[in-house]
Each structure stands twice: as C-alpha cells, then as structure tokens.
Amino acid sequence: MWKVIWKAAIVILLFLGITLPCLAQEYTVAALIEESKKWDGQAITLEGEVIGDIMFRKNMAWFNISDETGAIGVWIDTSEAKKINLTGNYRHHGDNVKISGIFHRALKEQGGEMAIAGESIEIYTSGKEIIHPIQTIRLAILGIMTILTFIIYLIKLKIFNH
Amino acid sequence: MQNSKDDLKILAYYMGKIVIGVGLLLIVPIITGIVVKELSALVDFIISFLLFMIVGLVLEMMGQGFRGTFRWIHGLVISALSWIILMFLSALPYWLSGHFLSYLDAMFDVMSGFTTTGLALIQNLDHVSITLNMWRHVLTFVGGQGMVVLALSFLITKGTGTLGMYVGEAKDEKLLPNVTDTAKAIWFISLIYLIIGTIVLTFAGIQIGLRPSKSFLHGLWVFMAAWSTGGFAPQSQNILYYHSTLYETITIIFFVIGSFNFALHHAIWKGNKKEIYKNIEIISFISTLIIITTIAVELFKSYGLYNDTISIFRRVFYQIISAHTTTGFMTIYARQFLYDWGGIGIVVISIAMLIGGSASSTAGGIKGIRIGFLIKALLQNMKKAASPEKRVYVEKYHFNGKNVLSDDIIKNALLIIVLYFITFIVGVIATLFSGYNLEESFFEAASITGNVGLSIGVTSTSMPSGLKVTYIIMMWLARLEFISAFAFIWTILNGVRKTCGKLFGRQL
Fold first, then answer.
1. By the 8 A CB rule, do B113 and B119 touch?
2. Residue B386: what pLDDT?
3. Does the CA dihedral A73-A76-A80-A85 come out positive or negative?
4. Would you call B194 exposed, middle or buried from its count of C-beta atoms within 10 A (0-12, 13-18, 19+)?
5. Which of B1, B70, B167, B378 is a good FRET partner for B221, with 20 to 30 A between their CA atoms?
6. At A43, which helix (H) or strand (E)?
7. Closest Cα of chain A to B404: distance in Å?
8. Is residue A21 scored above 50 in pLDDT?
9. pLDDT: which is higher, B169 or A67
10. Do A111 and B237 make contact, defined as CB atoms within 8 angstroms?
C-alpha cells in the first residue's frame, strides 16, 4: 500500500515539476513591466497581437506586440519578422503570435530600452479584417441635424437682415 | 461685470463665434475620413460638426444686438468659459468612436488635449481610426496656440475685450501692436514650423522603416503634439513605439522650440538672433535643465541600470527634457518611473514638470521667466541686505531688450507660483485620498499641474470619477494660469448672489 502511495507521490511531483515551470512562462506585458527586475535576462514566451508596423533595420526588425495589459517592443531577426502577415490597426486585427525570446529590462544595444530580444515567432491565429458598419440610427440623427442646422441658419440670416 | 442682459448677450455672441471657429476645425478630420474612406468615423464627425454649428449659431443669435462695449472682463470670462463648452462639444466624436468607457473619459482626453497635457484615457489606441487620430492631434495643436487665439485670428476683430480674451488664455506677449495681428503672427509661426516639422519627421519615419503614407501621418501628428508640447502620440506606446534615436532626437528639437515664448520666435524671425543668448527665460530654462539632468544622471549612475551615454540620453535625459518642456512624450513605460527612478528621481522630475517651459508659449508649468524673476528678486534682496542703507538697487532682466524688474512684476510672479503650488498640493491630496501612494500622487499631480502628460500609471480608466473631475479642473486652471478662470468663477458667484437676492427679495 505504502509503495503505491509513494510511487503515486513521485509521479505527481514529477508531473508538477515539469508542468509548473511551463505554466510560469505565461507572461503578460504588464507583469513583465511591473516585475522587470525579476524577469530581466530570463527566457520568456509572450502571446499577443502584432500592432502597427514592422520596422525593418538592416538584418533585424522592430515590431510591437500587444496583449490586454499593454504593448512592448520586440527586436528580432528579419527572417522571423517576415513570418508576420498582418499587423493590427483600425481596419485589421493583427496576427496573434507567440514570441519566444529574452526579456531585457534595459537592452543596451537598443539604447537601454525595455524590450524582448526575440528568437522565434509562432503565429497561432492569423489576423483578420475588422468591419466598421455605419449605424442606421446615426445616419438618421445626421439627417435630422442637417435639417435643423439649415433651419437655424435661415432664422439667423433673417434676424441679421432684420 | 454686472451680469446684465447685455453682458450675457456679449458672452453668448462671442462664445458662439468661438464655437463655430473650433467647429470648422472638424473639417480637417472630415476631409481625412473621406480621403481614407473611414465612412463610419466620417458619420460621427459630421454629426459632431453639425452639433458645433447648431450650438454656435444659437449662441450667436442669443447674443445678437447687444449694446455696450466688449470689455476686458468679458474677454477673460469668455476665455475660461469657452474651454469648458468646447470640452463638452469636442468630446462627442471621441465618445461616438466607442474608444471611451464614458463621456467623462472622453471629456478628460479633450481637456488633456486642449491644455496640451497629453494624458489619455482612450481605450485600444492601437486600433483607432486615422480620422479620430487626426482630431486628437488637431485639438492638441490648436490647444497649444489657444482656441481663443484661433478665433481672434479669423473671426473676431474688434473691441477692447479681445485683449482680455487673449490674456485670458495665458498669453500676454503682444508681438505686434494689434492683438488680432499678434494672434495671426502666432498662427503664422506655428504653421511654418508645421510644414518643416512634418517634412523632417516624414523622412525620419521612412528612414526607420515606416511606410511613406504612414510616415507622413505619424510625422504630422507627432509634430503637432511636439510643437504644442502636447505629448499625444498615435500609438499606445507613445514615442517608444518607434524604437529610434533619430526619431527621438528630432522630437526633442521640435518640442524644445515649441516650448519657447512666441515673442522670442518673433524676435528671431525679425533677425534679432542675439535674443536667444540673452533672454531670461532661455537662461532660466538651460540652468534648471543642467541642474536637474546632472542630478538624474548621477542618480542613474548609482543605480547602474543604464551604463552608456546613449541609454542615459534616451531613457533619462529624454524624460527630463520632455518633463521640463511639459511635453509628456515618453520613451519608457509609465511604471518604470515608479520602479526604476526611485524616490529622489521622482522628486527631481516632478520639479522639472512644475517649473515648465516659457510664458506665452505652448508649454505649461510655473514658467521659467517666473523662476528667473524669483531668483533675481532673491539676489536683489541679498545685495540690499549686504549694502549701505541709502544705496538703491535697480534689478534688470533681458527680455526683448532690457527691462526693470519692478515690485509689481515680482508680486505677480509670486502670486502665480503660490497658486500653482496650491493646485499641486490639492492634486497630491486628491490622489492620495483615491488610494494611491505618496510617490504616485506626487508625480501625477505634478504632471497634471504642469500640463505635462508624463504618467506614473495613476491616470487610467480605473481611477475614481472624482479624481478624473479634479484632474480636469486642475488642467484647466493651470493652462489658463488662473486669472480668467477666477474671473469666470467670480462672475458665476456674483450671478448666484444676485439671483438669490432677487428670489429672497433683498440684496445679499
């Protein structure tokens, strides 16, 4: 009986030993900034949407990744950056990516910037178009206000002329 | 002001003109919306434009046929009141965009833009339409020169009250004998720089890897925010988004120039280049900048976080000069102030924020000229104390020529400094009572009082509504440098007193 419990305990401990560090690798931008001293120089994996532009600089590139807590810059090899198809803006939701790399509290090569020196990118959801439909109610309000403005303007002209 | 019908008519008439004037600015985002085919945003902006026109026309009609003269006090009250009415109206396109959690948040961002503070409660900024971003930056650009200055330039040309309106917006330098011509000169200077700045930043944008069209838009917006010492940026990471020494250096040049007195610009424009070396404001600005930078650099040397010159320049000096010119551009994350700068660092940068830029410029804060007066007055008193009793000292200062530092000038400067400190202390207490710690309260209150826009992380949608309202009032008071705001408050109190007197059948 004790042998079985003992073996089960070892299996559970081994399982936790393997999985817990992996779970701990789930970061957010806010957590990285708040605990920058703790994560400085650590290998991390960050998930988020690529926003704005990919700025190519010779063999390397800068882009910014945003999760619900904030946005941070990623400095990465051009070949990896080219994997990104769509970046987020008004019309698009950018590719959702998983970045693996080293978090730096002050990346010396980049003027002391807090950033991720990325090693690899994995796209787990492709970006998509965002539709911004015109609301009918707003069109109706626009029509009413146009007529109202015109009437007030005419009244004003009449008063002025009078 | 007697709060008579004619007084109210005068206020309504000129308010109407200002509302129409600022409303016409909506044509810029409307044209942008048409060009970039953002139809949903376009509808929101046309609705907002029509609202401005309706309110403006109604006000003008209400004020039609006023008798009496447009006096100084009218101008002061109009200045203060117009900022409040315009805040309510200008928030409409913000709110319609769906990027704000409440109308109060939208008004906060408008007041922040108008006062060139630059703090923002906008949500999901990285997915904002080009049309809305254009409006955000046009607001802060116009706010820097002054909405009343805009109206004076193009819509209002007569009456002695125009000077009151101009002064009411915290601009007291008359570049030209006529106040309307002065307003036009301010706009002329700003528009020339707008063209130069946009071209330079567009090329820099292409150089750092932005697409040409994007580079142009970002160049235009970042220039508008830099020149007006506003601090807004089209992306949530502010200037950090660009990851570029070149881009950061160019922004420094433009926001420093933007923080200079328009009278200085005009003097240089007229060929008086020596003014820049002698001007009391420039000397004061450079002196305090050197002192604050030295302290901060020594501090960071002891921390060991940034060990090379480029890092110190981009992460320490940038924040200091951005704070000192009250711009609010950031190349670090807000929470880094709390975790990386330490208590002394926070105090040092807060002092820079409170001192601010030049008077009659786009910058906020106490202003370098007042600090200069204070130091000169102090030296004068020390000399007096150490000299024979009969000796008379006349202290002079250089500002567009030599001027005598009179007791009245010192008294006025001291009064404004005291009012700034009271506002700052109220801000600290309000922030503390909202549950933030002393360092956070000190920093954020200094940023709000100086109309700076750097944040330590307090300003967010989750802060209490009461604190948002307090910050809105603080931004408004500080930007107008109190005088016109007090004239407005006094007028309201006077009106309430008279109304109560009438209601209760006696004069209170």
1. no
2. 82
3. positive
4. middle
5. B167
6. strand A43-57
7. 46
8. no
9. A67
10. no
Core vs surface per residue B112-137: b (16+ CB within 10 A) or e: bbbbbbbbbbbeebbbbbbbbbbbbb
**Which chain B residue's Cα is nearest to A149?**
B54
- The DSSP 8-state label assigned to residue A71 in this structure reads E
| A74, A114, A146, A162, best to mutate vs chain B, most B CBs in 10 Å | A114
Give the gap in angstroms from C-alpha A24 to the nearest C-alpha of chain B: 22
- Element at A97 (helix H, strand E): strand A96-107
SS3 A29: helix
Cα–Cα distances in angstroms (integers) from residue B367 to residues B175, B229, B324, B477, B483, in the given order: 19, 13, 10, 15, 15
Sequence-distant (6+) residues with CB within 8 A of B32 are B38, B130, B131, B134
Residue A53 zone, left/alpha/beta (φ > 0; ψ -120 to 50; rest): beta
Q: How far apart are CA B251 and CA A139, in angstroms?
A: 40
Give the helix ranges, DSSP H, for B390-482. 407-433, 438-449, 465-479
Q: What is the DSSP letter of A127?
A: -
- For residue A122, the surrounding DSSP H or E stretch is strand A113-125
Residue B237 neighbours by CB under 8 Å, 6+ apart: A64, A71, A72, A73, B333
- Tokens for B393? 């000292």
For residue A96, the surrounding DSSP H or E stretch is: strand A96-107
Neighbours of A162 (CB within 10 A): 7
In this predicted model, what pLDDT tens digit does every residue of B29-65 receive, in sequence order? 999 999 999 999 999 999 999 999 999 999 999 988 7
| Residue B208 to residue A57, Cβ atoms within 8 A | yes
DSSP assignment, residue A88? B
Give the whole-angstrom CA distance, residue B440 versus residue B461.
16
How far, in Å, CA of B140 to CA of B111, rounded? 9
d(CA B413, CA B129): 43
Q: Which two tokens stand for residue B337?
A: 């102030």
pLDDT of residue A22: 46
pLDDT for A24: 42
pLDDT of residue B508: 47
The residue count of chain B comes to 508
Pull the structure tokens for residue B464: 């209490």
With an 8 Å Cβ cutoff, are A113 and B314 in contact?
A: yes
Which residue from B minimizes the CA distance to A49?
B126
- Whether residues B130 and A153 touch (CB distance < 8 A) is answered with no
Residue whose C-alpha is closest to residue B38's, from B110, B134, B121, B142: B134
Q: Helices B5-24 & B72-96, crossing angle to 10 degrees? A: 40
Check if the beta carbon of residue B334 is closer than 8 Å to that of residue B455. yes
| CA-angle at A37, arms to A31 and A40, nearest 5° | 90
What does the pLDDT read at residue B248? 97
pLDDT digit string, tens, across residues B418-474 = 999 999 999 999 999 999 999 999 999 999 999 999 999 999 999 999 999 999 999
Residue numbers of chain B with a pLDDT score lower than 50: 508
Domain ranges of chain B: 5-176, 274-454
SS3 content of chain B, % helix, strand, coil (to 5): 70, 0, 30
- Mean pLDDT of the A57-81 span: 95
Inter-helix orientation angle B72-96/B483-503, to 10°: 100
Looking up tokens 């009179």 gives: B406
To the question of domain A26-129 being in CATH 1.10.3720.10, the answer is no
Question: What is the distance between the alpha carbons of residues A149 and B54, in angstroms, rounded to a whole number?
Answer: 5
**Chain centroid offset of residue B26 CA:** 20
Per-domain residue ranges for chain A? 26-129
Selecting from B39, B53, B127 the residue whose C-beta is nearest the C-beta of A90 gives B127
Coil vs helix vs strand at A135: coil
